[in-house]
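Comment thread on ticket #2218

A.B. wrote:
> Attaching the input chain for the structure job we discussed in standup.
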Amino acid sequence: MTSTSLDRDSLKALFQAAHQVLELPEGQLPEGTWTPEDRSLMISTMRRLRKRIDHATAVKFTVDQKLEPLEVSEIAQSDSTNEVEVSISPRSATAWTQLLNLPVSRMSPRELHLRTGYEMEELRAAIHKFSRLRDD
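C.D. wrote:
> Ran it. Output below, let me know if you need it in another format.
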């Protein structure tokens, strides 16, 4: 299984990028290997993680080949590492990376900063860390 850990700030940046995906009109979104259901699952999972991250040092995402395409594991807290852990399907790893990149590719650096509170490079760095899930 492939996994990657994101610190609290990186997860918060991803949450902001995910939130901006909701602001993009559905009819103007480019086609990809994702569906509206992927987008909904990403947003709901990021919201659940954001509520839990303040009590942890990081979030560990793991790709689990056994999960159904639109399935996410229960979010768990590791006592030994103080990380919040969640497993997602390979499809979600690919789809979420594409979705998270949309605001970065569609908005100017200034607009992105005003909407998210993060600089373009901070968002790109967080998305890059997350995208490691697709590397095998």
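A.B. wrote:
> Thanks. Noting for the ticket: The chain has a mean pLDDT of 90.
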